Structures are given as structure tokens and as C-alpha cells.
Amino acid sequence: MAAAQNPQLAEAIAGALEWWRDAGVDCAFADEPVDWLAQEIAAPPLAPPPPEPARKPQSTRRDPPAPPLAPRIDLAALPGSLETFVPWWMSEPMLANGSLARRVPPRGTAGAELMIVVPEPEREDSDSLLSGPQGKLLGAMLAAFELNPEQVYFASALPRHLPGADWAALAASGLGDVLARHIALAAPKRLAVFGASVLPLVSHDPPQGPADLRIFNHDSVNVPMLACRSLAALLEQPRWKARVWQAWLELTA
Questions:
Q1: 167-195 pLDDT, tens per residue?
Q2: Strand pairing class (114-118; 191-194)
Q3: Helical H segments across the chain, by residue range
Q4: What tens digit of pLDDT does each residue of 63-122 get?
Q5: Using CA atoms, how far apart are residues 109 and 150, in angstroms rounded to an integer?
Q6: What angle do CA 193, 205, 189 make, to 5 degrees?
Q7: Domain ranges of the chain
Q8: Residue 95 — φ and ψ, nearest 5°?
Q9: How far is Cα 104 from Cα 127, in angstroms, rounded to an integer?
Q10: What CATH class has 79-251?
Q11: Are the C-beta atoms of residues 234 and 228 closer than 8 Å to each other?
């Protein structure tokens, strides 16, 4: 406003600006001195980033597929009489890994004083069950029990000698039901089971001693049962025969 009212002042300001422009000063400046010749200090290089941890290769391993369920015996096809059971027993492919060779049939008649069940035929058996060393021991035991072979029904859980049998798999296939049907059809007055592998097929109770008194109970069939160590074990440890004898006396008391 003052420059507009005073022409002389406006000419003075314009002249000063023109003088500085002619002198090469056409921008703002600071009062602090600056060393324009000094070299620019380079900034320290950035540290390289830490390497990424090595990634573990993804495993291509896959869990093995679940084993297929073991085929089960057709329990609906089990024979309804002892006369038809034996031919079925000798020809059923679901028994003894399907092999029909060297099968040994049971022997005896229904309603026997005693039914004896062993895990499998002896290695020496061909036509008659328990014809080897175990059978000889059993014959001596029956003589002590005052029983003759005609009063006894001899049976095995397997129809043939099968070393290293997988008894858990056999039980899962329904072998226990087959044995239970066999016992029910034979209808003995008493039952003697020899061998720890047979006992789980006919009883859910855990073993308690070398010879235990039990009850076989299946489909309203109740039979007093003597559970013993295997005949092979009795051959190796004769002292166990005294316990079997005592259990027999209790069974028949």
C-alpha cells in the first residue's frame, strides 16, 4: 500500500531487486556457512538380510493303508448236527488257512463223559487225532481219571497241524464260534481244554493258574470245564500234572 502511494519508494525497491538479479542472486539463501567442497559422506551399506532358514522338504511318506478286515467264517452255514459237522470240518476252506491237506477229524461219540480240546493235531497225526507223544501222555492221564478212550470225545481247535498259527486272527475270523458249536453238538458231560491258545476261544476270563475250574456257557449250554496247560507243556514240566490231577478231583467231586 505504501509503495503504491509513494512512486519513489516503488522505484527504489524495483531497482534493488534488479541489482541483486544482475548479481546472480535469484533465490533464497541461509546465513549458516556451508562447505560446498567437502565430499559427501557415503552412508554405510545396509547389512544383508539374514538368510531364510532352510525349509525341510515336505515328506512324501504316506501312512500305510489300514489292513483289510480278515474274512469271517459264515456262521449261518455251520452244521446243525455232529454227523454233518465232521465233513464240513474236513472241507471248509476258511479253516486252517484254506489247506485241506493232512486234516485230522475229531473222534468219539456225542454225550461223552469228557470232551478234550487241544489247539491242533500233533505233527505225527494222520488218521487219528493225538497219536503221538501228547496222545500217550493223555492216555496215561485218562487211565488215572478211570476213563477209557470210548468214554472220551477228542477234538482240536484247528483241523490240521499249523505251526506258528496267528490265534488272534483265527479268533477274529470266527474260530471261537466254530469251536463253541462243536462243543454244543458233542454235548459232553465235562470239558477239558489244553493250551492257552484255545482258552480265549471258549472263555473270556483270564487264566488264573496251571489248571482252573470254569464253566463253558454258550447258547444255554453249560458244561463244567477244566482249563489246563498244553500237553506239550505238561510233557516238559511233569510237576504240573499234580495240579491237573487235583483240579480233576475237584471237577468230579
A1: 999 999 999 999 999 999 999 999 999 99
A2: parallel
A3: 2-5, 7-22, 82-91, 133-144, 167-172, 175-186, 199-202, 231-236, 241-251
A4: 666 555 557 888 888 999 999 999 999 999 989 888 888 999 999 999 999 999 999 999
A5: 8
A6: 40
A7: 79-251
A8: -100, 145
A9: 6
A10: alpha beta
A11: yes
